[in-house]
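Re-running the complex after MR caught last week's input typo. The corrected sequence lines follow. Everything else is unchanged.
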Amino acid sequence: MPAPVLEVEGLHKHFGGVAAVDGVSLSLAAGRIYGLIGPNGSGKTTLFNCVTGLERRNAGRVLLNGERIDGLPPWRIALKGIGRTFQIIRVFPELTALENLLVVTRGHLEEARARALELLRFVRLEALQDEYAGNLSYGQQKLVEFARMLMRDPTLVLLDEPAAGVNRTLLNDLLEAVRQLRERGKTVLLVEHDMKVVMGLCETVFVLDHGEKIAEGPPGAIQADERVIEAYFGR
Amino acid sequence: MNVAITPAMVGQVVISGILAGALYSMVALGLALIFGVMRVINIAHGPLLMLGAYTTFFLHSLFGLNPYLSVPVTMAVLFVVGVVLQRTLVFRVVDAPELSSLLLTFGISIGLVNLAQLAFTSDLRAVEYLTGSFPLGPFAVSKPRLVAFVFAAGVTGLAFLFLRGTRLGKAIRATSQSREVAMVCGVDVQRVHMLTFGFASALAAAGGALIAVIVAIQPEMGQIWTFKSFLVIVLGGAGNYPGALLGGMLLGLVEQGAALFLTTQLSEVVAYVLLVVVLLVRPTGLLGGRQT
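Corrected-run output:
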């Protein structure tokens, strides 16, 4: 087993008296696609926020390639190689599609432009590069966000509900893009409610309920897990 | 009162309004940037303009520097002052409730005015450089106001080019549209906050440098600019940068128009009436506020 790309150890996050994430540990190996599922309010997005630094964890450790990243500001974590998308798409509405990608750059501007244009071609939006992102359709905004996340060539990609509100064609494009990421050695962790997507894509699935990890394993085994069924449907 | 109003008088109002409006736009753009990026209403914006006016005054009186050549120097000096203020004080209230940032910047404002009174006394100062006006058809165009207009338009134009064209400009716009996403994209928002405060102070300073030639310089000259700038960004839509341009022009025209159609004393009242009307009818401002 190669060294894990991301290790989360005993992560706690509470808001007031409510534990949103309650002692979760995960370990992600390179070049694999992981799913994170659980009922609404089970702590999936909070876990993403703690890993990316948007929320300060109350306890626990987060390591990226063996290096502690908990406590770093979000931009430092991003620069270390974690890219993410949001559950509700978050493009910069008053920047153009191209500018949305160029926000994510350091180094040579012409190289950045070339990379941004290449990524826009990859998501088939090159014709709309100068359109304000706020004027694009929902699906196009989702692609802009996806392309923006890839700008810095992250080693770990966190996707929050990539399939939500997306039509079949676009969904297949996105899933294909995610598979391509894996082929290039990237690690993917995705939160998803669409079980078909999770079953078709993920090699390992983590299940959260009330902030705790209640199951971990291959999708088939997870679907049959008593506790998982109980968490979703009640006893 | 009730003199007949001729087309020439209206033309004069439009000219004077646009000349004044460009200054309002430039200074208010600074306030809009700080509000857009940090969600802080900087009450000290006007006093920073006052420091800009004094900087130009001293560069002129001590070193004989042409007040118009002093504009970039004054802007650079106040850029540094702004960065230091942000780094030492303002950064503490960026995530705090709005009342905290209002109180802090109000405190900074009082502090700057009192320091200026201590250091420079309350004596009125003036930069005697350019006065009078030249005729343009039936109109009289004030020379220092025309030069101020040209400079303000140039500085504002450069500011927009900077926001559009440079990487830091994009980072500033991205941060003001969504701070969280900007952070996740790797934008060092603390640095963006600091530099934005510097740029905003430089824009106020440019205003101070340009009016130093026109009005009397004294420690309390700045506060009215805070309120006018605030009015401008509410008119245009808080956090909406092109809105600041529109709001500034509108304020210039309304003030000059009121001075003609009513009385000079009432012109400021009219500006505030305009504020109340916009808040009642279109509270997000004419061009709409920042989208979330």
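None of the earlier attempt is carried over here. Chain B has a mean pLDDT of 91. Residues 7-38 of chain B form the longest helix (32 residues).
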